[in-house]
Write a structure and sequence with these properties.
The chain is α+β, with helices and mostly antiparallel strands. The chain has helices at residues 3-26, 32-42, 44-65, 119-185, 191-225, 243-248, 253-263, 265-286, 310-317, 336-402, 408-442, and strands spanning 28-30, 70-87, 94-115, 234-236, 291-303, 320-328.
Length: 447
């Protein structure tokens, strides 16, 4: 290699170092809480549920004010041509003349329903329970979003761990290749061992490429969930390990089920939805009963043909007060109320079915999550024992191979077993942590 080529490679290496340093400085570091917050801010289902809560809040507010009176102002301004009745305000004489007059009429109208079969009260209670159900639906969507991003977050960490394991093994194989090459040169090893090891290096390089590709794909999936720009490099911070706590934890299945029934937002959401359906049914039935209302109307008038000022006419001549009670008895409304009652009955019956179904579903989900945690603990201990045995086997095989007492095949199998054991232990650890998160989620205690 000439000096020009050496200088060129040196310059390229320096530039790559500066480029990597600049990229590292721009790399965004994200911890678990930040990932969750980003996911919630951009999760479509969660934001949709937020909008639905606003809609339910508006409906509940409307039904609350529906308990009070209804008040309105009215006003008419018009010109009238033709025969009109004109009253003299002084002597109260009346005459009919053909004239064009300018008129103003003003009114204040108030009414309040006193009784309508408790329709308004039940409607308010129904809308309040529907609002509570929607708020719990929002909480359920939040928990689901957290679990999703948690799974993706931990998958990235696992993929990174497997990538680092593959990288370490690839480097170890390269070192072994150099060592065997030196032994071959002094005739301490046959040439076939060199070529076998060279093939192993290529195989481990292929495993490394696959692990790196998996890691990058998992990073891209998480980046999409937390809405990062595609070109933004980022690193995840490893959460504090709670492995010993998880391994020492013991659970009672019945207690877990009771916790889930008390805390899970989807269970409580369905309970409030069932109450809302029941109250909506009774409110609809109340629509077939008589309605009694109190009313008060105030009106006044101005006519330009009457010899009095606007103020006098509006304040003194034409003011009138109307007040009293009104009753409305529905006799026939083309079966509209009957149809509404039937639809409300169906909604209520369906809500009760959903309420029963979710209780059974919760038990099955808690049982499955509980079994998965128990299985993950057993898998962890098995993977730990496997790695310890594989490490000892690899050490012995390496010693035998180095002194020429062992074959390359036996050594290669020991290396592969050790690699699989390391990957298996990492997977077991992350699986246990994730299954614990799923168990918490099924019990409704995701934070």
């Amino acid at each position: 290699m000439n000096s020009k080529t050496t200088a060129t490679l040196f310059l390229a290496g320096v530039l790559m170092c500066f480029a990597w340093e600049g990229r590292a400085q721009d790399t965004l570091k994200i911890n678990f809480d930040e990932a969750v917050q980003r996911a919630l801010q951009r999760n479509v289902d969660y934001r949709t549920q937020q909008n639905e809560v606003g809609r339910a809040q508006a409906t509940a507010t409307q039904s609350l004010f529906g308990l009070g009176p209804e008040v309105s102002l009215s006003g008419d301004f018009y010109e009238r041509k033709g025969r009109q009745q004109i009253t003299d305000p002084d002597d109260q004489s009346v005459r009919f003349v053909d004239v064009t007059s300018r008129n103003i009429s003003l009114g204040l109208n108030a009414s309040m329903v006193l009784f309508n079969g408790l329709n308004r009260i039940l409607t308010y209670r129904s809308s309040s329970n529907a609002l509570r159900a929607q708020e719990l639906g929002l909480e359920s969507a939040k928990q689901q979003a957290i679990v999703t991003v948690t799974q993706q977050y931990m998958q990235v960490l696992l993929s990174k761990e497997l990538y680092l394991i593959a990288l370490d093994n690839y480097r170890d194989q390269e070192e072994s290749l150099k060592r065997i090459e030196g032994q071959v040169e002094v005739n301490a090893r046959p040439m076939v061992d060199f070529y076998n090891q060279k093939a192993e290096v290529s195989r481990f390089k292929s495993l490394l490429i696959t692990a790196e590709n998996t890691y990058q794909n998992d990073l891209a999936t998480l980046a999409q969930s937390i809405q990062l720009e595609p070109s933004t490099p980022f690193l995840l911070e490893l959460p504090e390990s709670e492995l010993e706590t998880l391994l020492a934890a013991e659970y009672d299945l019945d207690a877990l089920y009771e916790t889930a029934m008390a805390n899970r937002p989807d269970v409580r959401q369905q309970s409030f939805a069932t109450k809302a359906s029941s109250q909506s049914l009774w409110a609809t039935k109340g629509g077939g009963l008589p309605t009694i209302s109190a009313f008060y109307n105030y009106g006044t008038f101005y006519n330009s043909t009457i010899p009095a000022t606007i103020g006098v006419q509006l304040r003194e001549v034409f003011p009138a007060h109307f007040y009293g009670l009104s009753i409305n008895v529905p006799l026939f409304n083309k079966f509209q109320n009957t149809s509404s009652i039937q639809r409300a009955k169906v909604d209520y019956e369906n809500a009760k079915l959903q309420d029963e179904a979710i209780k059974f579903s919760v038990y099955q989900e808690v049982l499955s999550a509980y079994n998965n945690v128990v299985a993950s603990k057993a898998s962890y201990y098995a993977a730990k024992d496997r790695l310890e045995s594989a490490s000892l086997a690899l050490q012995l095989q390496k010693e035998r191979y180095d002194i020429g007492a062992g074959s390359f095949v036996d050594y290669s199998q020991a290396v592969n077993s050790h690699l699989q054991a390391k990957a298996g232990l990492s997977q077991a650890i992350f699986s246990l942590k994730f299954q614990q998160i799923i168990l918490d989620y099924q019990c409704g205690i995701v934070r």
